[in-house]
Amino acid sequence: MNGVKVYEMDWTAEIEFLGNCMWGAGPFGGDSFTAVPGWPGGGLDAFNPRFFGKQRARKGQRQKIEGKFMFQKAEQGWRLVR
């Protein structure tokens, strides 16, 4: 990356939902995600922006997630880039 040393680390995790929620990609996509407590109440609540792009998860449900960290060599070690 422009002559700078980089290190990529792939990761995998399993999360457990502690309550019923809607969850999915974070507002900026990428490796992040968000969870919103509860489910849409029906009617127009299904169009509430906080639920867009998210799926239902039940209490106790487990989900595997994965992503990638990228580090850049710095003067005093490594720095997280993304």
SSE order and pairing:
Elements: E1 6-16, E2 21-25, E3 33-37, E4 54-57, E5 62-74, E6 77-80
Antiparallel strand pairs: 1-5, 2-3, 2-4, 5-6
Average residue-wise pLDDT: 85
Shape: elongated
Structural class: mainly beta
Share of residues in strands: over 45%
Calculate the terminal CA-CA distance, rounded to whole Å: 13 Å
How would you spell out the order of helices and strands?
A: EEEEEE
| Helical run tally | 0
Summarize the structure.
It contains no helices and six strands. By secondary structure, it is mainly β. A hairpin with a 7-residue loop joins strand 2 and strand 3.
Describe the model.
The protein has 82 residues and is an all-beta fold. The chain contains no helices and six strands. It has strands at residues 6-16, 21-25, 33-37, 54-57, 62-74, 77-80. The strands form two sheets. It has a three-stranded antiparallel β-sheet with strand order 1-5-6, with no helix packed on it. A hairpin with a 7-residue loop joins strand 2 and strand 3. The chain is elongated. It starts with 5 loop residues before the first strand and ends with a strand.
Please give a handful of descriptors for the protein shown.
82 residues, 3-stranded antiparallel β-sheet, elongated
